[in-house]
């Protein structure tokens, strides 16, 4: 039989990582004679109030003919995780939760948790249907992500991430990852992506937190992820990892979004202290204030340059305070800009000659009909923040329309 083991919220400010916790569990499961068929990493609703770093949850898909022995393994692993957290996470930042499903009959728990805030009270029925659910004594929050990960049924728009974990003796020390790695990935592994931020030039594969992850390589196929990580691991100057595994992910899926929204700019955008931009717009559902953070880079610049009357298509998230947090934008039509009187054939600009009269050229005396001319600006395509300031869930502009 097949088991879906969902795990969430095992990390805390001093370290830890849900992918690493899942690796320890996977080792115990394999030692008990079962097979790990697939590992899945899902990113969830970015505004979740108790979100962990990256807000990711993991699911191990296990093939076994002895589910009760797997349940015993999971319980014992979970108890040792709680013991470990008691010592290092005294403020209970981590509220781990684990569920085991023996069938995936609905992916509703996933869609709820990737697009909305979920209250644990709404999940009681679903949790009762699990083979087991285990949670931290201080709270059940971890069960939300655990259930979402176990319920996710991956569709076409999946990506993959190969994650290498550091030797325990290295945790917390600076990571040794050869600077050649990024070049190797870019030169020899075209199906990997987001290795380097093209606008700043720095590598994106290693986290900056004290967690056990050495690096993660994102790829568009499982095989590409495996080939790339094996190539990188034998490159000189990179610290030897403890081990690695490949996860199927919902990264770059846009699963957190409800679709594009058409907006008309009502007022000039406001640039706030610190560089954030807000702009009041109108949609078919009423007024909407859009916010773009300074980190949005060129997206921030694009929204700041809007003028009243401009029409655009936007993608982003409705934040709990009612604002719309912008992730991508495409201008559809721009209102006329830089109004000026037309030019005369002699090159001089026509001037107004009184309240209602025709326009007159002061140089050659020609006249023309009273009117305004405007600069025509052709809108460019979709604009997004630089790679290191996009959400894990956000689809890169370059892929829009290519996978759905
Ligand atoms: Zn003239």
Quick recap of the structure?
With 404 residues, this protein is an alpha+beta fold.
Key descriptive features of the protein:
404 residues, alpha+beta, Alpha-Beta Plaits, OB fold (Dihydrolipoamide Acetyltransferase, E2P), five-stranded mixed beta barrel
Rough shape? elongated
**Strand order, largest beta sheet:** 5-4-1-3-2-9-6-8-7
What is the helix/strand order? EHEEHEHHEHEHEEHEEEEEHEEEEEEE
Give the ligands present: zinc ion
Tell me how many strands there are: 20
Structural class, by secondary structure, is alpha+beta
CATH topology category name of the largest domain: Alpha-Beta Plaits
Biggest beta sheet summary: 9 strands, mixed
* Count of discrete domains: 2
Distance between the termini: 31 Å
The CATH level-2 architecture of the largest domain is identified as: 2-Layer Sandwich
CATH class of the largest domain: Alpha Beta
Account of the protein in words:
This protein has 404 residues and is an alpha+beta fold. It has two domains: 2-249, 2-Layer Sandwich (Alpha-Beta Plaits), CATH 3.30.70.2200; 261-334 and 377-399, OB fold (Dihydrolipoamide Acetyltransferase, E2P) (Beta Barrel), CATH 2.40.50.1010. 22% of the residues lie in helices and 27% in strands. The longest helix has 22 residues, at 67-88. The site of zinc ion has 7 residues, from loops.
């Amino acid at each position: 039989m097949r088991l879906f083991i969902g795990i969430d919220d095992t990390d805390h400010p001093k370290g830890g990582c849900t992918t690493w916790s899942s690796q320890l569990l996977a080792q115990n499961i394999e030692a008990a004679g079962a097979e790990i068929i697939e590992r899945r990493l899902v990113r969830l609703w970015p505004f979740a109030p108790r979100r962990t770093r990256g807000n990711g949850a993991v699911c191990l898909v296990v093939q076994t003919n002895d589910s009760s022995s797997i349940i015993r393994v999971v319980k014992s692993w979970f108890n040792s995780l709680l013991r470990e957290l008691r010592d290092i996470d005294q403020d209970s930042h981590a509220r781990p939760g684990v569920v085991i499903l023996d069938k995936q009959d609905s992916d509703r728990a996933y869609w709820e948790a990737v697009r909305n805030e979920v209250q644990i009270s709404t999940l009681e029925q679903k949790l009762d249907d699990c083979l087991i659910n285990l949670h931290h004594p201080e709270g059940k929050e971890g069960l939300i992500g655990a259930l979402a990960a176990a319920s996710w049924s991956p569709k076409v728009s999946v990506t993959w991430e190969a994650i290498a974990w550091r030797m325990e003796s290295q945790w917390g020390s600076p990571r040794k990852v050869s600077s050649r790695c990024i070049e190797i990935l870019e030169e020899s592994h075209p199906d990997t992506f987001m290795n380097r931020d093209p606008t700043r030039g720095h590598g994106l594969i290693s986290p900056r937190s004290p967690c056990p992850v050495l690096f993660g390589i994102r790829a568009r196929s499982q095989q590409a992820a495996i080939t790339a990580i094996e190539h990188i691991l034998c490159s000189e100057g990179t610290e030897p990892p403890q081990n690695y595994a490949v996860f199927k992910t919902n990264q770059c899926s846009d699963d957190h979004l409800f679709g594009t929204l058409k907006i008309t700019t009502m007022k000039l955008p406001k640039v706030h202290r610190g560089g954030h931009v807000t702009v009041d717009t109108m949609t078919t559902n009423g007024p909407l204030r859009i916010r773009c953070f300074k980190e949005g880079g060129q997206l921030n610049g694009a929204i700041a340059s809007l003028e009243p009357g401009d029409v655009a298509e936007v993608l982003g998230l409705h934040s709990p305070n009612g604002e719309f947090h912008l992730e991508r934008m495409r201008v559809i039509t721009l209102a006329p800009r830089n109004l000026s009187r037309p030019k005369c054939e002699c090159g001089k600009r026509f001037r107004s000659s009184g309240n209602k009269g025709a326009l007159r050229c002061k140089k050659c005396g020609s006249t023309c009909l009273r009117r305004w001319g405007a600069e025509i600006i052709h809108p460019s395509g979709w604009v997004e923040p630089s790679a290191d300031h996009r959400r894990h869930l956000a689809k890169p502009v370059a892929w829009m329309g290519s996978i759905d």
